[in-house]
Write a structure and sequence with these properties.
The structure holds 2 protein chains of 2 kinds. By secondary structure, chain A is mainly α. Helices cover 78% and strands 0% of the residues of chain A. Chain A is elongated, with a radius of gyration of 21 Å. Classes of the chains: A mainly alpha, B mainly alpha.
């Protein structure tokens, strides 16, 4: 019915969060380069880049799912754009958004959390290996 | 079928991305993430449908399967279109920019 709207809404929020995080990271980098601290030399992927993975999954998934809804006639080009609303099935639509839609958003976010944890572990190991090599040298 | 086709597309693009890594100039990672996102969402859809239909879920009518396959292929094509538009807008290799500068000169 309109389950794609839930991950779509999450995509909007996560895109805004990414922009804010990116701005903060750039400010910190500028500050660090002015202070001459080592923050600029930090190894690893920026958190804003990792948030970008979530954005791509959410935007891509929502767009392709929206296409599927158009295919099945659940999304229409005229107001109110949703067949369920037009036919007075708002209750059913909201119930589907609350179950399938929320589960979709949670599953994609959980997959992203898994990706972030794995990348953090790899980066940590790499940093430890680099440190131990420097100590040996 | 839509879920299966999208999963196969996601796996294929992920393998291409892995083979080409760390070179990310073609943005294969973006396309792979888009397909994985859609696959996860359709997986949820499939689970809910299975909960409703039970074993009947695995024996769809031929006409439904054909329609779903057609939809799956269209979804893959749409994903590729979105990716190619993004690629041309970002133009990581600067090819479009060079072409436009040449034409204007």
């Amino acid at each position: 019915m309109a389950c794609f709207l839930v991950p779509g809404t999450e995509a909007i929020v996560s895109t805004i969060v990414t922009a804010v995080v990116k701005k903060k990271e750039n400010n910190n980098l500028k500050k660090a380069s002015v202070d001459g601290t080592s923050a600029t030399e930090k190894i690893g992927t920026k958190f804003s880049t990792k948030l970008g993975w979530l954005n791509k999954m959410l935007w891509g998934g929502s767009a392709l799912l929206a296409f599927e809804h158009i295919w099945h006639g659940e999304v229409i080009p005229t107001f109110p754009f949703l067949t369920a609303v037009k036919e007075g099935e708002v209750g059913g639509m909201l119930a589907e958004m609350g179950t399938a839609g929320v589960t979709m958003a949670v599953l994609v976010t959980a997959a992203w959390v898994g990706m972030v944890i794995v990348s953090n572990v790899i980066e940590k190991r790499q940093a430890e290996n680099t440190d131990s090599k420097e100590v040996k040298a | 079928m839509t879920l299966l086709i999208t999963i196969f597309a996601a796996i294929t693009v992920t393998l291409i991305w892995y083979k080409k890594a760390p070179d990310n100039s073609m943005r294969y990672g973006t396309l792979a993430l888009m397909y994985w996102g859609a696959s996860l969402m359709w997986l949820v859809d499939a689970i809910f449908e299975y909960a409703e239909l039970g074993a009947e879920f695995f024996t769809p009518a031929a006409e439904d399967m054909l329609n779903d396959s057609y939809l799956g292929l269209c979804v893959v094509a749409l994903g590729l279109i979105i990716w190619i538009v993004m690629l041309f807008i970002k133009d990581p290799k600067g090819i479009i920019r060079k072409m436009l500068v040449k034409k204007n000169a």
